Amino acid sequence: MAKQVMFLMLTCLISISAIEADYNVLKYGAKPDGATDATEAFLRAWKAACSSAKAAMIYVPKGRYMLKAVEFRGPCKSPVTVRIDGTLVAPTDYRALGNSGYWILFRQVNKLTVVGGKLDAKGAGYWACKNSGGSCPPGARSITFNWANDIVLSGLMSINSQATHIVINSCNNAVVRNVKVIAPDQSPNTDGIHVQSSTGVTITGSTLQSGDDCISIGPGTTNLYMSHIKCGPGHGISIGSLGRDATEDGVQNVTLTNAIFTGSDNGVRIKSWARPTTSFVRNVLFQNIVMKNVKNPIIIDQNYCPNNQGCPRQSSGVKISQVTYRYIQGTSATQNAVMFDCSTSTPCQGIRLQDINLTYMNKAATSSCKNIGGTSSGLVMPQSCL
Ligand SMILES: *[C@@H]1O[C@H](CO)[C@@H](O)[C@H](O)[C@H]1NC(C)=O
Ligand SMILES: *[C@@H]1O[C@H](CO)[C@@H](O)[C@H](O)[C@H]1NC(C)=O
């Protein structure tokens, strides 16, 4: 009897997904030739799907689709899935994405799932502009979710963004899973994933190779869970920069578990401006991490003040507390594998090191501590300075 009920329920579920309304972008006029502007066709498909009375699926078949800066707006009537088998490409001229700051933007869309696909923002022209020191537009983030709740981004590959590849901003309950981000080591500000002002974000099973942070965690991030992350090249996983503004939301309850950093500038970093602020970082756990030839495997830097502008001789007001590092092993590319440079005015508190084994050129590495309180337990190498 129970089996029959289960079977009925399953059939029911399967038929619900089978009758999901289907919106194929080809039917709305998109040309998969990589050159014809497909922006309007995608927007027509979006409009239809977003007003569907039942769950809707937008389908992007194999092929290359050229998209300009585009905003997919909600709220939608029903849950929407965007299934991408093709590649979305930006216009060749980087100025085409203009000053919008965004390439593909989902705004105020709830219950959205984006599955598969490849994004090629063709960022090289933009990086060349930035590196030449000329005046360049601010640069477009490749895919952004703004004010969106209950979203899933799964199986996406993003290459060569102008600025950050993936942004989760002001969202509740977001899952980023099995994504791959690739940009060259020297491409400026091409962060992998940026999370800000969001609650309940999970990032799992992802490989991030970029010219800036693999994952950057901005003000107002709470309940962030990251697992099975491969990072490098890049600047590591960074909470911050925080404390740029005098009034700013803090970051709390962040977990990173099971990660491998390879050849990155940093491993796990907390970074704040040397300026007064209301901001804070608390309840953070970094655990089960392997470092392979990482320059600063464990680092807190509260003296961030690029070009000595707006903060020289000031000290950071960001209050850092209850941060645990455990089961972290591997190799440092510099002698000082653990660096805690906390604020003179707001010292770090409740910092815990447990079972750390980091070496430098097969020898003991060192650690340094400033303005910090905490404990260590288990085997801790380099010797703890807490
Ligand atoms: C911390 O975040 C996790 C998700 O990563 C969540 O399950 C948990 O309830 C949060 N804890 C608190 C105290 O909010
Ligand atoms: C620390 O790690 C090195 C290799 O990175 C290893 O040879 C050594 O045995 C480890 N030490 C302990 C006590 O686990």
Automatic annotation (TrEMBL):
Residues 1-21 form the signal peptide. This is Polygalacturonase. Keywords: Cell wall, Cell wall biogenesis/degradation, Glycosidase, Hydrolase, Secreted, Signal. The active site is at residue 235. It is found in: Secreted, Cell wall. One of its GO terms (biological process) is cell wall organization. InterPro entries: Glyco_hydro_28, PbH1, Pectin_lyas_fold, Pectin_lyase_fold/virulence. SMART domains: PbH1. One of its GO terms (molecular function) is polygalacturonase activity. SUPFAM superfamilies: Pectin lyase-like (SSF51126). The keyword Cell membrane does not apply. The lineage of its organism: Eukaryota, Viridiplantae, Streptophyta, Embryophyta, Tracheophyta. Belongs to the glycosyl hydrolase 28 family. PANTHER family: PTHR31375.
